[in-house]
From TrEMBL:
Residues 164-184, 222-263 are annotated as: Disordered. It holds the Pfam family FMN_red. This is Benzoquinone reductase. The lineage of its organism: Eukaryota, Fungi, Fungi incertae sedis, Mucoromycota, Mucoromycotina. It comes from the Eukaryota. GO terms for cellular component: membrane. Belongs to the WrbA family. Residues 4-190 form the Flavodoxin-like domain. PROSITE patterns: FLAVODOXIN_LIKE. PANTHER family: FLAVODOXIN-RELATED PROTEIN WRBA-RELATED, FLAVOPROTEIN-LIKE PROTEIN YCP4-RELATED. Gene3D superfamilies: 3.40.50.360. GO terms for molecular function: FMN binding; NAD(P)H dehydrogenase (quinone) activity.
Length: 263
């Protein structure tokens, strides 16, 4: 069974709640999931001043543990648009693994929590990607794999870099069902990729005989991707502009059925 570690930091519990949905998605694909928190770097004094509740009874990750997993999903609460010092300190301690290439080729993804909708979930992702690139890991983005990501009727965390929640400045907002669904899709898709790689490796190593074309089908055809729901509208007449391009309504272009600006 492939093994994925969920590794998180969560001072007030939002990232932890999201991790449960990520875990559910992974397990739906037959992945063995182990959940860890990163070591705390703040003193008890400071934690008290921040009104932090007691830590959950979840094992603390060690660097040595990392080489045993097939993939990792990091749960990250944003600090000033970047990852918090606790996650950074842990990643900084992986130098020995980098030197030996121990994490090269492993899969990794990220999910987030911010206080505000525009609080920096995407910039936080960028602060982690350099670590993963230096280790030679395969960063797996979420993309727009869940239709809730196109819903603008309510606050919904997450981005193509990973699922997310919006906690509010006072932490009062809880993870919504739509955010949980997105997180579960992220776990599911990550699990499918890990399973495909795992099965493919076994075939290449002569440990399994499943036909390669079946493995490829799992990779290319079964990822959950829910396109946005778009209504059929008559195209507005093109404005007179040197930059506008009129696309005939009966064009054979494969894009003609989509009214989404991004498709
Ligand atoms: C020092 C500090 C910096 C923060 N910086 C940001 C920020 O840049 N953007 C934002 O939206 N929220 C920011 N927050 C809010 C946290 O992201 C929020 O408390 C966290 O996502 C809640 O997740 P948790 O319940 O898992 O701890 C900050 C919080 C602290 C304590």
């Amino acid at each position: 069974m492939p093994v994925v570690y969920i590794i998180f930091y969560s001072l007030y519990g939002h990232v932890y709640t999201l991790s449960e949905s990520v875990k559910q998605g992974l397990e739906s694909q037959g992945i063995t999931v182990k959940v860890f928190q990163v070591p705390e770097t703040l003193s008890e004094d400071i934690l008290e001043k921040m009104h932090a509740p007691p830590k959950r009874d979840i094992p603390v990750i060690t660097v040595e543990e990392l080489s045993k997993a097939d993939g990792f999903l990091f749960g990250i609460p944003t600090r000033f648009g970047t990852m918090p010092a606790q996650i950074k300190a842990f990643l900084d301690s992986t130098g020995q693994l980098w030197a030996t290439g121990a994490l090269a080729g492993k899969f990794v993804g990220t999910f987030f929590s911010t206080a505000a909708q525009s609080g920096g979930q995407e910039t936080t992702a960028f602060t982690t990607i350099t670590y993963f690139a230096h280790h030679g890991m395969n960063y797996v983005p979420l993309g727009f794999a869940n239709a809730n990501m196109f819903d603008t009727t309510e606050v919904i965390g997450g981005s193509p870099y990973g699922s997310g929640t919006v906690a509010n400045g006072d932490g009062s907002r809880q993870v919504s069902q739509k955010e949980k669904d997105i997180a579960s899709t992220q776990g599911e898709n990550f699990g499918k990729i890990i399973q495909t790689f795992h099965k493919g490796s076994k075939i290449l190593n002569g440990e399994a005989s499943e036909p390669a074309d079946k493995v490829q089908t799992i990779a290319t055809e079964t990822l959950s991707v829910e396109p946005p729901v778009v209504t059929e509208e008559k195209p507005k007449p093109a404005q007179e502009s040197s930059r506008s391009v009129a696309i005939p309504a009966d064009s054979d272009s494969p894009k003609k059925s989509s009214k989404c600006f991004c498709m």
